[in-house]
Amino acid sequence: MAEPSKKEATKVVDEGIDVGISRLTEEKIQSVINSVIDEETGARLKTYVETCVHCGLCSEACHYYLSHDNDPHYSPVGKVKQTIWEMVKKKGRVTPEFIRQAAIIAQTECNLCKRCAQYCPFGIDIAYLMSVVRRIIHRLGVTPLYIQDTAHSHSVTMNQMWVKGDEWPDTLQWQEEEAQAEIPDLRIPLEKEGADIMYSVIAPEPKFQAQLIYQAAVIMHVAGVDWTMPASMGWDNSDMAMFTGDNELMGRLKRTHFETAARLKVKKIVMGECGHAFRSVYDMGNRWLGWAMPPFTIVHAIEFYHDIIKEGRIKIARKYKPPITLHDPCNVVRGGGLHEKARFVAHAICENVIEMHPNREHNYCCGAGGGVINTGPPFKMTRITGNRVKAEQLFGAKTKGAEVLVAPCHNCHSGLHDIVHHYEIGLDIKFFGDIIYEVMEKPA
Amino acid sequence: MHTFYNFVSGPLAWVAFILFFGGSIYRIASMLKLVAEKERFIFSYMSWRYSLRSILHWIIPFATVNWRRQPVLTVVTFTFHLCLLATPIFLLSHVVLWDEAFNVSWWTLPDAVADVMTIIVILGAVYFLVRRVTQPEVKFVTSASDFVILTIVAAPFITGFLAYHQWLSYPLMMCLHVLAGDILLAAMPFTRLSHMLFSPFTRAYMGSEFGKVRHARDW
User: Fold this and answer.
1) Closest in A50, A72, A287 to B137, CB measured
2) Is 1.20.950 the CATH number for B9-214?
3) What is the pLDDT of residues B97-147, one digit of tens each?
4) Beta-carbon-side half-sphere exposure of residue A308 (alpha carbons within 13 Å)
5) Partners of B64 in the β-ladder
6) Which of B136, B146, B219 sits opposite A118 (nearest CB)?
């Protein structure tokens, strides 16, 4: 067994990182670090670094730390020590090898879930510090390959998955036709100016989970919602640029998204069951564009379902029988306070809801968030072995009878899938939309 | 010894107090200036309600999840900080000094209570020292400066305790005690002891972000 206080040397091969590192010189590193620190940060970085009393109380907040038998290299403050502290202390004079480790730590061993902010007595925003490291890594060109490819896709196509211009309306039309086999007068209204709602999704939905759009269309139709989807760019609300530190690209994406909603003259944006996209649209992208709060009312799917169920716009024919347990996604719960609404929805549509512990704001991250899952196969095991506590937590819920895990977030969904599979927990994973579609009253 | 005592309790004490008050104002003002220059948006997210809600939870023992998870540390850190702040302010012999010098005085602690509080501070410092060298997650992020600031904090209490009980050389201890107090005062704004100044601000900002934007609890 490994010594608990020793971290094994990380020797992952990632072309984005390795090729990027091979191009670095110490002068370049120094000038980029100092440029980011001097020009892009301010009182937060300075005050956080100078106020931290090195007490280690953030450690137990972190699922990586807990999952690695309390190895201090994985504690939030431990990650800060191995990255930004050194950069600040040495005024950017660090080696390419140091940058390599910093890239791995900031991009793959932190989900930016902000649970540590709830554990630090001073409220030091460690996720922000990791974002600063990611920004440096981005400007040094050392971002892991897979997530960088996603960012490239954003830059070229304004969506995350290289979905081409014609593939998007094509997919919507295909899903509309599929759904019309069930409900003949169902429409997926494209480009409807003045609709109440613009419904936006992340690119993986048209790319390989088109049935989610089908389900959403059925829910919208039954609820009698005046909705539309754009046929142009701007339909994708996802944002990996936010997680690579490519703030300029994040700004382009969110501007396109908001301007599309403005062009369609909608009242609000309803978004699918995605966490990071909510963070981008509701919290991060709008700030980059100068909006303290988003220029449109942003309604996450959880809140949307909550509202239409509460208002009686959809009826539940028969509640879902298998006992479910609910995973609180960081970005919409710790980041948006939707935990009670999620519970309202869960209880409204399911017969038996079993709480996992910890839950609500204190839930453990899925390990996929913050762009970690988007760093791809080289780091798959980083997030699975780095989240053993999630497996233990899920197993606890299963022991109490849960059979289905509801995760109202795409990244959580995929990350939890890997965890459930690897640790052989045996839980089915579903979105709220899957269950609502199944249990709601539909026109015969 | 007398000359030295007069120096540390006279000119040096003035310097220490000026550094403490002046330095504190300077540090806070420069932080706010930096916010205004580079992260102005922070002001627009600040909320009194959520700032106070967050601060209140964190200054009450066991009112947060993490305080409850760390019961021993919570008891130690709260009593340590309370005694650390209250003892020097309400110690009878300190108030006598204020009275003699400036003709101002206020309520004082009974000496026996102050004595116990001093011991609490010293034991608290020992606890933090032991924690720092034995707990892996604390040890990993410990640097020499952590021992220095702990020493700076403990020194006035150790010397004061020895002087009060007149163990070892009383005149020497008194001199060292006043010197250590001067050092502590002067160091507070300029070392990580400045968490005394900054933590209300960092806490308030995080509380505001969690309350106003995230609609979630940060405790």
Assistant:
1) A72
2) yes
3) 999 999 999 999 999 999 999 999 999 999 999 999 999 999 999 999 999
4) 25
5) none
6) B219
* A118 lies within 8 A of chain B by CB: yes
- A 39-58: CB under 8 A from B: 41-44, 46-48, 50-57
- Chain-chain contact of A56 with B141 (C-beta, under 8 angstroms): yes
Chain A nearest C-alpha distance from B130 (Å): 12
A1 in a structural domain = no
Tokens of A198: 């613009």
pLDDT per residue over A227-260, tens digit each? 999 999 999 999 999 999 999 999 999 999 999 9
Q: What is the pLDDT of residue A1?
A: 41
Q: Which long-range contacts (CB under 8 A, 24 or more apart) does B7-14 make?
A: B8/B175, B8/B178, B8/B179, B8/B182, B9/B97, B9/B178, B12/B178, B12/B179, B12/B182, B13/B178, B13/B181, B13/B182
Residues of chain A with C-beta less than 8 angstroms from the C-beta of B143:
54
Q: Which of B44, B73, B199 lies nearest to residue A122, judging by beta carbons?
A: B199
Same domain, A305 and A350: no
For residue range A41-89, what is the model confidence (pLDDT) as tens digits?
999 999 999 999 999 999 999 999 999 999 999 999 999 999 999 999 9
- For chain B, which residues make up each domain, given as ranges? 9-214
A209-226 pLDDT tens trace: 999 999 999 999 999 999
> Any chain B CB within 8 A of the CB of A329?
no
Same domain, yes or no: A304 and A172: yes
The total of other beta-carbon atoms located within 10 Å of residue A127's CB is 18
What is the span of the domain harbouring residue A121? 15-143
Give me the pLDDT at residue A2, please: 43
Decide if A292 and B215 are in contact by the 8 Å CB cutoff: no
CB contact under 8 A, B66 and A293: no
